[in-house]
Amino acid sequence: MFVWVDVGVDVRVQCELCPKGCIIGPGQSGECRVRINLDGVLRSVVYGYPCSASIDPVEKKPVFHFLPGTPILSIATVGCNLHCKNCQNWEISQANPEDSRASACPPEKLVALAKQYQCPSIAYTYTDPVVYYEYTYDTAKLAKEAGIRSVLVTAGYINELPWRDLLQHVAVARIDLKSVSEAFYRDVCSATLKPVQNALVVAKSMGVHVEVVNLVIPTLNDKPQEIRELVRWVRANLGKETPLHFSGFTPMYKMRHLPPTSLQALESARDIAAGEGLEYIYIGNRQSKNGENTYCPQCKRLLLQRVGFAVLQNRLKDGHCPDCGKEIYGIWK
Amino acid sequence: MTRRRFVRVITGTTSALCGGLCWLSQRAAPHRVVRALRLGKYPGEVVPMEDIGKQSKWSG
């Protein structure tokens, strides 16, 4: 009898957006906290309500091979489908929408703001655009029609079909590859590795410009063998031209007990990647000599000089090296 | 009860049970959804948009 009543009244929903596949009971939300089941209908509570909207340099994402030196309208809503213990933005990514502030900004307004502030692109960033998928999708579609490109800054934890749908309207996917260890994804991020690798491969195969970020965390994923494995995976599956950013960890959230990543560790990761034949390797979150510059992989001359988020020099000629003529991977105009 | 009537009753009951179980399992299985509909009303505090011209404090 109880079973009968339960089944008759409760209408559960399974969210198939991301590999977590949350089965959500009435009035409940998925793990991301922002997709809820109301009367048997899955609703996005953050659609049109960003908790942050700012104009950043595109280098801050970091995206180095896409319209260097341009401003990018960057937005986020609260919520995330991962729960990384080292999250730098945990105050918004792990927040409940009912406890947080947001501003009303529908897709049309975002596109209008990008035009008003002369931003050639919009970034869906800070938390993860996967959890505000519908908002991202509608904005990216509208932006594309208005000649504004979309940049996803994501952990890439999404099912293939919705990912393919979204990528049709996107120019750049800046995806974290946090490790190539299943144990790392399970223990640190409460996620799995394979869907992320699949998202990277699918984005690249669809002709979307891809850049990869690996946050190097002392003792957790900084072993040379692990870095080498990650680099080899990138080279074999995404190509040697794919930019790889090694980023420095800062003690944060549930990982305050670990030390920050040293510059030496990042330089050592860069040397491993260079030894494995990757063409564009960068160091982020630490001041390093030449770690943010782009060099021609053929003649080794300087192409783009960067300090922090500023581009000091851009010698590219129509996306080619001015000295040897090699075409440089990226979107340059 | 004749043997024929007995078989008819058993068959009818079994089919009714099977049909019920199918219906029940269908009802019990969650609806599979990818796209969510918008809620329309934000559950938290809605505030005016701040100056978007300045760089964000968030990483990424």
Write a concise keyword list for the protein shown above.
heterodimer, A: 333 residues, alpha/beta, TIM Barrel, 8-stranded mixed sheet, 3-stranded antiparallel sheet, 9 helices, 22% strand, B: 60 residues, alpha+beta, 3 strands
Summarize the structure in words.
The complex is a heterodimer of chains A (333) and B (60). With 333 residues, chain A is α/β, with parallel strands linked by helices. Chain A has two domains: 1-45, no CATH class; 46-314, Aldolase class I (TIM Barrel, Alpha-Beta Barrel), CATH 3.20.20.70. Chain A has nine helices and 16 strands. Chain A has helices at residues 2-9, 90-93, 107-116, 133-145, 160-167, 182-189, 194-205, 224-238, 263-275, and strands at 13-15, 23-24, 35-38, 41-44, 52-57, 71-76, 101-102, 121-124, 149-154, 172-176, 209-216, 244-248, 281-284, 294-295, 302-307, 310-314. In chain A, helix 3 crosses helix 4. The longest helix of chain A has 15 residues, at 224-238. The model of chain A is unreliable at 1-5 (pLDDT under 50). Chain B has one helix spanning 3-28, and strands at residues 31-33, 37-38, 45-46. Chain B starts with a helix and ends in a 14-residue tail after the last strand. Chain B has 60 residues and is of the alpha+beta class. Chain B has a domain at 1-27. Classes of the chains: A alpha/beta (333), B alpha+beta (60). Chains A and B meet through helix 1, strand 1, strand 2, strand 3 and strand 4 of A and helix 1, strand 1, strand 2 and strand 3 of B. Strand 7 of chain A pairs parallel with strand 3 of chain B.
